[in-house]
Amino acid sequence: MRKFLNDPRATVREMLEGLADCSPGLALLAEEGVILRAGLPAFAERREVAVISGGGAGHEPAHAGYVGPGLLHAAVAGDVFTSPPVDAVLAAVRAVAGPPGALLIVKNYTGDRLNFGLAAELARAEGIPCEVAVVADDVALAGTVEPARRRGIAGTVLVHKVAGAAAAAGLSLDAVAAEVRAAAAALGSMGVALGACTVPAAGKPGFNLPEGEMELGLGIHGEAGVARVPLAPARDIAATLLDRITAEMALPGGTPVALLVNGLGGTPPMELALMTREALSGLRARGVPVARAWCGTLLSALEMPGCSFSLMAVDEARLARLDAPASAPAWPGGGSIPEARATVAAAEAPPHPWTGAADPAIRAAVLAVASALEGAEARLTALDAATGDGDLGLSLARGAAALRALPEGAFADAPTALSAMAGTLRRAIAGSSGPFYATALLRAARALPARPAPADWASALEAAADAITELGGAQPGDRTMLDALRPAATAFRAALPGGGAAALSAGARAAAEGAAATASMRPRLGRASYLGERALGHTDAGAAAIAAWMAALEEAVSSR
């Protein structure tokens, strides 16, 4: 078991202390596992109906995360997945309730019902009006147990919101309790898990789940579900949950709902957002209007990977409770959603001027580069795999295919060709190489006249190297593509007195020598830098690619 713990027996108290330490609106009740609102009216007569919830720890951010104005007045935490003791619940009632009394919201588990129920009875004996509202929203047990015996799960968060808003509106205890019980009755939830969680005191997962399977219809205490089924695509999982929930709720046609997509602790936001997409799409396809929706980890089961859907039927009055102002550390707020997903059309790129005939020499040179990159694919893949992620060979081969597909007009003159190459390589080459090549080619294109002389090509090579330095921050000696390109540009200019062909030949030799030298360089940038000295002895793949196409250009020019 790997968890951030001190003493497992002290975990809950230390967790509550950490929450109170970073939440100015919360206070921790001395000697009890109770979080309550800080700054409640000192005169109990001025207090509204107190709303109290809780249960075993391990469901964070519930329940303490929902203590605040417009939500709970106090939350009581027991040991992990264990109902809090009666005395802790009673202490919470005494701490936050005034003459209007208190409402205890209880999820439908035997321990919670017994301990909260007895605490309510003791409070009444002390003269504190007290009511209990039970949440039993888990439809997974339909046909197995009667509705009154179903578990309470994530939909309880929405019940907290209704209760807190009703209390803040100044309603009496009986009226708040009536609204809350009606909201709980209008609620249906169901969950699915892709793995187990580990209770700190147990030290091992609660169950073993083979690869390719999932638990359907589980509670929130690390237990297995009502059925173990094959893992399915997200859309199919969402459809199963929605079918079960809507069938059990038997909503009249057109009844709007509030939707809660809840993570069980180990599900990343990416997957929860995807499941929310499927839930909204599925509900709309079923003709169920969604008035409000929330997505996030709002009531967890420690680190369990999984999620649940909760639907609450709403009318204008209940919607007003969900919309009422509220502030608590974990309350996500809002809930308003658009009627349909907003999409904005991407601005179209300006039309390219690629018309007319190609310059044969330019086209031949570009095709020679494409052939060199295709021929070097296997070697570049091997070099990149030794110190990176191994995708450079394939990426540059895709780039070569894109160069071959350019229309004739793209080769009309040198600046046009380099600009066209920049655009197509930007889209075709994955990873960092695409932006580097595109930026270098664009900068080089701006350095060239329509009919460049050898000195203009020298300036273009230098401009390309400068662009890569500015974009990525690399310098010669950092073991990157620049260790081949910069020497090539320097050698090209130095050899200009001998003519363009001689300059290109010198540049190609310098690129090859620079690429070879990278094998003895300690990498300072890119993925290879993570390997440190382990990269020594391997030529940098990006530099090798520069050397390959420089050699192809030399051969294409010399053969004319």
From TrEMBL:
Q: Which residues form the DhaK domain?
A: 7-331
**What SUPFAM superfamilies has UniProt attached to this entry?**
DAK1/DegV-like, DhaL-like
A GO biological process held by the record: glycerol catabolic process
Residues forming the DhaL domain are 360-555
Any one GO CC term of this protein is:
cytosol
A family per Pfam: Dak2
Judging by the UniProt lineage, the source's domain of life is Bacteria
- UniProt xrefs under InterPro entries: DhaK_dom, DhaL_dom, DhaL_dom_sf, Dihydroxyacetone_Kinase
GO molecular function (one):
glycerone kinase activity
Q: What is this protein called?
A: DAK2 domain-containing protein
Per the UniProt record, the source organism is Falsiroseomonas algicola
